[in-house]
Structures are given as C-alpha cells and as structure tokens.
Amino acid sequence: MNNSLVTSINELKKQKNAIILAHYYVNGEIQDIADYVGDSFYLSKIAANTDADIIVFCGVSFMGESAKMLNPNKTVLMPDIDADCAMAHMCEVSYIEKVRKEYDDVAVVCYINSTAELKSYSDVCVTSSNALKIVKALPNKNILFIPDKNLGHYISKLVPEKNFIFNDGHCPIHNKILSKHINEAKESHPLAKVLSHPECPAEVLEISDFIGSTSEIIDYALESNDKEFIVATEVGVFHKLQKDNPDKVFYPVIENQICKDMKFITLQKIYDSLLNGTGEMNVSNECTETALNALDKMLVLGK
Ligand code: 13P
Ligand code: SF4
Known about the structure:
This protein has helices spanning about 5-15, 30-35, 40-50, 60-70, 95-100, 115-120, 130-135, 150-160, 180-190, 200-205, 215-225, 235-245, 265-275, 285-300, and strands at about 20-25, 35-40, 55-60, 75, 105-110, 125, 140-145, 165, 195, 210, 230, 250. By secondary structure, the protein is of the alpha/beta class.
C-alpha cells in the first residue's frame, strides 16, 4: 500500500469533514482505508445518517446516486464517475408502464442496483439483504420485480403467495456462474460449502448451501465451523473473508468473477477527487423527488 497517499487521503478527509464508504467488491486496499465497508443496504443506511459534509463513495454509480438522493444537500464524490453497474440499466420505463396498466394491484419492486430513473418509476427499493422482508411486508398481490431476474426468481420462490412478474435483467458477472461450474468446483473441493449471492442463476442457488448478500456471506463464513468454502460472488469479498478467517480457505467458482467497474477505484483517484472535488454525483431534482420515495420506503420497511 502507498502509505504517503493513505496519509494524504486521511488528512484531506479530516480537513473537509469527509467520510469514505466502500463496497465489498472494491479492491482490498480501498476497503482498508474506508470508514465504512459493507453491502448495499448497510452503505445506504450509513449514507442516510451521516453528519459528514462530503461522502466519497467507492462503488458504482447507482450507489452514489442513492447516497446523493438521500442527502441532496451534501456533496457525494465518486472517485471514478464512469464506474457503473451494467444491470442497473437493464429495464425499460415503457415495460414498467405497460405492466402497471395490465395489473391494478401491482407493486414495482426495484433492486437498488438500478438507475435513479428506474427508481423514480418504482414503489419501493430493495437490496439482496432486505428484499424478502420488504416483499412480504407489501400489501400487493402482484409484484413486478426489476431489473434482476435472478434475485426476483429467488424471492418469488420464498413468497409463493404472491404473483411475480419478472424482467430480463441480470448481473453479467453472477449470471455467468453456472451449476456445471459449481459441480466442477465441488469435485475439486469435496469438503467445501457453497456460498452464493442471489444474483446467481436459479440452477446455482438450488445447489448452494447458503444464499445471501455479500455481508450475509461474510457473516455466515465467520460463524461456520466448516473450513473450506466455494464462493459464488465477486472476488472483492475474499479480502474480508480471508482477513476474518485466516484458518479457512475460500475458492472462487470460475476464474473471472470480477466486476471490472468496481476495480476502477484506486487510492490515487480517491485522493484526486477529495483534493479537487472531481467526480461529483448529481441527480436531477425531478428524479430525486420520486425516486426518494422508493428509497425511503426501503429504509422504513427494511429496518
Ligand atoms: P450486495 O447488496 O450484496 O452488496 O450486492 C451488491 C451488488 O452489486 C451485487 O452484485
Ligand atoms: Fe452490477 Fe454485477 Fe457489478 Fe454488482 S457485480 S455492481 S450487479 S455489474
């Protein structure tokens, strides 16, 4: 790690009353200097309650957008403003409008991995760690789940009393992990437990020992008496897994479980953005007004 850069970042943070939030998918050296590291739900709660003047969000655009909408009067800096989530764009507003016309009693449930625009057409946001709780709490029989088909299908199996309408979005990283890859990994590591993120396809979830958000996978591994794990999510989580469990071994399922956009974030970019205020996130007032309802509802129902 570049110690002088880290010292300079810490000095700037103090001077400017800034905090650094980092998702578990960014590089380990970024996680190590962050004030808060977590899954999407945890980070959005931190962003909603901070007293800092500046939030430096080490993650992808939808995370920065949500932090900005929850804090319209604060400055949200993205060390790399081009870091984006492909899935966040994988739904059309016209599709939401069409489904709303077809079903009277429909709730549009929007995974937080979505653009601010999609959130503004939705009734409530969810993350992978609170989706089940929130969907169950909704009075509506019909649920349009956007944009992730895999998380949507996973939740639908757990809430059979509701009628789900799906959308065809997916995470390109999780969606390429298949059951044949899990089976191959199990052959190489027969004692290992399989821990999977619900963005993986159903065929993977069906043969997993545990399904959860990034934080839930980390908590599970820490509490488990098992010593070996096959982990079906982005490789950034291995940093925390290995740090917490030096006596345990973690295996990826395939070689490139990598979200390249999360890896855009570097210490130098964090320093530059704190120093110069570059990468400032802005969301239009019009979008914020409506999208904020869906985010606020998540924070209330997900408590
Ligand atoms: P978590 O909610 O588990 O942090 O997941 C975020 C994400 O981008 C998964 O791909
Ligand atoms: Fe989006 Fe997938 Fe990257 Fe998560 S891992 S930020 S869902 S592209």
